[in-house]
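pipeline/complex-builder :: batch 7 item 3
reading input block
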Amino acid sequence: MKIAKQEVIHVANLARLDLDEQSVDKFAGQIDTILEYIALLNKVDTKGVKPTSHAISLTNAFREDKVGEHLGRDDALLNAPERDDENFIVPKIIG
Amino acid sequence: MNLYELTIKEAASLLGKKEISSKELTRSVIDRINAVENKIDAFITITEELAMKQAEEADAAISKGDIMPLTGIPMAVKDLLCLKGIKTTCGSKFLENFVPPYNATVMEKLQKQGAVIVGKLNMDEFAMGSTNENSGFKPVRNPWDLSRIPGGSSGGSAASVAADMCLASLGSDTGGSIRQPASHCGIVGLKPTYGRVSRFGLVAFASSLDQIGPLTKNVSDCAAVMNAISGYDPKDSTSVPKDVPDYTACLGQDIAGMKIGIPVEYQSSEGLDPDVENAVSKAVKTLEGIGAECVEVSLPHTSYAVAAYYVIAPSEASSNLARYDGVRYGIRDKDQTDLIKMYRSSRSDGFGQEVQRRIIIGTYCLSAGYYDAYYGKASEVRTLITQDFEKAFETCDAIVSPVAPTPAFPIGQNSDDPLTLYLSDIFTLSANLAGIPGMSVPCGFSRDGLPVGLQIMGKHFQEEKLLKIAHSYEQATDFHKKKPSL
């Protein structure tokens, strides 16, 4: 076993997902199989190999610090599930 | 011949000679969509009103002699490309009402050419999947056999072109999502080099792997669409500032003497369907027949590609999809009065099973104590896979292989077996890990009459070589001319 049910619940919590018991059972089994398979990577000797984060490495993608076109407030708020004229509205954070 | 059956090149020629109008052509395509869409379910949104308006504008431009290769051509795009004012769902319930306030760069580029957009295409949710069964709305069906998958995740993009519901489409490819559905639907699909096409306005899945590309009826159309969408974009700092050649210029050039690499590791691949194997080896003979020289090459780390990919892609996805929190866009569980509970409930309601599964795998691989063992290790193996290709390309101009190990299988066959599905990406996902271009061209049919594709891969930014080889091959065969009967 690579991953226990308890761990699936913990990781789902980190990822802000609610899983019902049935999904926890199902995912634990499936993810375990996948992680077992992924363990294949341990067979590869990668001593001294540099990791690749991007296939085409570009460094320092600079631009001038100039104000360009940007979304207006109304456009930015267009898809908000809850809003007022100027803000996104979220449930109260500080009691 | 019906107008909707035309290729881009044929239509552009008739439009240029004013033998047809874009309005007539677009009407024909919309009528075709209305006639067959209930069988295929290729579209999430049909944009008839927008299309007819754009067709009228295209006709006005053409009458002034202002015509570009895609002017007045009805196209459709995968529903993860933001089109201003038009619902863009990414195949997810979470975004079922999302209307982008801006255009993806590729949409700007298509509009600049005067292309006509007939709709937004169905896909696996957040592009995660290879069957289209993970669409948050409805599965797409393969036009060649309606009981089978069209491939994925750009299933709608491939099925719509194969069923003549648009002249060409755009899709995106993170591990094979353009090439595999193109192969299953018997059309041409190209995943360009990472950084060739701007990803600005593409809803992100795995940012170091995603690339937008064309799905078309033939190779010359593919080159025409590549001309329109390629190039550096200041809005995407991973797009590469490199000149874009005229991709149509290489078409028709002789491929005599070109060296085609055949990876030995791919030949012994388990689970390779004999019909696919047969079609691909015949294709290799055809290539030899038109002057190519075939050589064996080795990609020794092939057997680790799936494992590396299924660490890297879900890890990047878990990070990218953290933005869906029910605050700025998407659905929200309005009953929750606690912020964290609101996040959790909204995300769980909005995301389907495969998306949740991959977020969990990715979060696990990136979590404290596991990062080095999973993401770190996979990123190192990714380097070795890239080096395999670099070495192989020292002795050949391009590599050919199958696209998918089997032809399209029945809907539902593998839907509860994620690992089996992941393993079927073996031939395509290495190109994403290495960032190299890969293409699928029709190379035959299975005994059941299902299309089979040939994959051609090349060095970074050598799309021209792929198009040249694919075009020569296409001229020597007639698989691309066959159409499904609907």
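note: Chain B touches chain A through 73 residues (CB under 8 Å).
queue -> next item
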